[in-house]
Amino acid sequence: MGHPTPSYRYGKVVFILGIESSCDESGVALVKIDPPLSSQVQSATKVEKIELPQLLAHALHTQIEMHQPYGGVVPELASRDHIQRIIPLLKQVLQTSGVDIHQVDLVAYTKGPGLAGALLVGAGVAACLASSMDLPLMGIHHLEGHLLSPFLSEDPPSFPFVCLLVSGGHTQLMRVQSMGQYELLGESVDDAAGEAFDKSAKLMGLDYPGGAELSKLAQTGNDKAYQFPRPLLHSGKLDFSFAGLKTSVLTQVKKMSDSEIEASKHDLAASVQAAIVEVLVKKSVAALKLTGLKTLVVAGGVGANQSLRKNLKEECARLGAKVHFPEMHLCTDNGAMIALAAAMRVQYGIEQGSKSYAFDVKPRWALGDLPR
Fold it and tell me: For 16-35, how does the pLDDT look when each residue is reduced to its tens digit (9 = 90+)?
């Protein structure tokens, strides 16, 4: 027996709740789609411009302090903490937005990729909420959420564009033709950029999460003090590789005493950052030239790096292109990007949600496998 396809009435404001729990951040958010809606629901190839969803409220809890003593995310602890955090965050979002829970029209959650146990917490809460109120449920791809997050900025992009996705264990370049139409141009073949930041920081003795601390130290360091490699920079392809950089950092710090590392940490940090940023910038520019597009979107946690932002703005200006970033508070994992992705899928007629509440999660999930 099939499940009815949800419909959204013409002229009605639609409220969409988003829940994020893929790793070590618990996030809940509420967005709204202003009417008219039914005129927007059509083939994605025919939609040229829509009225973007509006973020009404979002709340976030990070587990960084809890995981710091272990030097990394402990999956079981992450899952348990999500259980405690999501409902209080939900209450906070509803109170801030002034929207009653019974006004919600659709519940979205992060289906993957991510930590299986953590994903199951968010999926379970979302399914219970949707089932109890007879609402449609929609599982969202975590990376699609990041990819679309700049649409919540004050200066949103428009399709088509090249996207540099630098989130956690993922570094990818994609040609984004329209909503749901993603062509992979290049990706990390080993360590991603975020991993290169974090692993290099750990080798330098910095506390978890080291990437952010490394970036801070780099601001006052000499980025030419150490000549770290730029893997695959001149390969002629758009793939990334940062494992060799990590090995080079390891080799360098092994030559140094603890006191020498401490004295040189600003220069080490600046040199590591310079290597990563140069690769990301030059590959992004190459992708723009290859596709002929003049818009670059940067999404994911590494998108908060100030050196990356500065260099990409400068290089895009030289190319006559424009670069868009998420707001700083939306670079990390958050519920706003999940609610946004669900809203845009509804608007573009790709998905409407389902009233089947037998949820599942996908810890490994390729972005190219999404419905389109």
Answer: 999 999 999 999 999 999 87
C-beta of residue 62 within 8 angstroms of C-beta of residue 85: no
Residues with Cβ within 8 Å of residue 13, at least 6 apart in sequence? 32, 33, 34, 35
Query: Is the domain of 167 the same as that of 300?
Result: yes
Is 297 domain-assigned? yes
Side-chain half-sphere exposure of 74, counting CA atoms within 13 A: 11
Establish whether the linkage from the previous residue to 4 is cis, with ω within 30° of 0. Answer: no
**Same domain, yes or no, for 336 and 359?**
yes
Largest pairwise CA distance in the chain: 69
pLDDT band at 36 (very low <50, low <70, confident <90, very high): low
pLDDT over threshold 60, residue 2: no
| Residue 7 within a domain | no
Query: Tell me, what DSSP letter sits at residue 43?
Result: -
Count the Cβ atoms, other than its own, within 10 Å of residue 5. 11
Checking if the pLDDT of 1 tops 50, the result is: no
| Residues 114, 30 share a domain | yes
By CB neighbour count within 10 A (0-12 exposed, 13-18 middle, 19+ buried), where does 348 fall? buried
Q: Quick one: which of 185, 156, 157, 124 has its CA closest to 294?
A: 157
Do 311 and 170 fall into the same domain?
yes
| Same domain, yes or no: 318 and 338 | no
Tell me how crowded residue 46 is: count the other CB atoms within 10 A of its CB: 9
Q: Amino acid identity, residue 237?
A: K
Q: Alpha-carbon distance 56 to 43, whole Å? A: 27
Under the banding of pLDDT at 50, 70 and 90, the label for residue 359 is confident
320 is a domain residue: yes
Q: Residue 198 sits in which domain range? A: 159-325
Residue 206 near residue 195 (C-beta atoms within 8 A): no
What pTM was estimated for this model as a whole?
0.92
- How far is C-alpha 206 from the geometric centre of its chain's CA atoms? 24
Q: Are 137 and 271 in contact (CB under 8 A)?
A: no
Does residue 37 surpass a pLDDT of 70? no
DSSP states of 319-371 as a string? HT-EEE---GGGSSS-HHHHHHHHHHHHHTTS---BS-------SS--GGGS-
Same domain, 217 and 346: no
Q: Domain for residue 38, yes or no?
A: yes
CA 28 to CA 109: how far, in whole Å? Answer: 9
